[in-house]
Specification:
alpha+beta; globular
Length: 139
């Protein structure tokens, strides 16, 4: 990624770069990010590892999705998923309705998917186009 790009106004999605399910959802977000609100970094990248280390988060298990607004807080698991949907807007913002459920309840389902993700999808090789490639930190 071009180091001159400023991503302070972006929402950074940290994901498992080796996970087929995660790569599917990154591609899904990319296709719907009409207002250019998101950037992406794998948890395995230097940028991802720095993010985890600075927050004393697990750096070897990549089962958690993080959504970070630089200079502000970060969200994890189901809270990150719901915020991504909300930021995409339109029909996806209806996902806010799920916020009525306790986080622990929502994360139960998130954890189930995370624990079973290798059974749910095979690894796929996602090749971003030129515009999409600019949204990745350390491709």
């Amino acid at each position: 990624m071009d180091s001159s790009v400023d991503f302070k106004d972006k929402n950074i999605v940290f994901f498992d770069g080796d996970c087929g399910v995660c790569n599917f959802w990154v591609q899904w977000i990319l296709e719907r990010d009409k207002n250019d609100k998101f950037m992406f970094a794998s948890l395995q990248s230097k940028f991802g590892q720095k993010f985890l280390a600075e927050r004393n988060l697990e750096r070897k298990q990549f089962k958690t999705l993080y959504l970070w607004k630089p200079g502000k807080t970060y969200l994890v698991k189901s809270q990150a998923v719901l915020e991504i949907a909300s930021l995409l807007g339109g029909v996806y913002s209806l996902a806010k309705i799920a916020k009525i459920f306790p986080t622990g309840f929502m994360n139960f389902f998130y954890n189930w998917v995370s624990d079973n993700r290798t059974k749910l999808a095979t690894q796929t090789c996602f090749l971003p186009d030129a515009h999409q490639k600019k949204k990745f930190i350390e491709v």
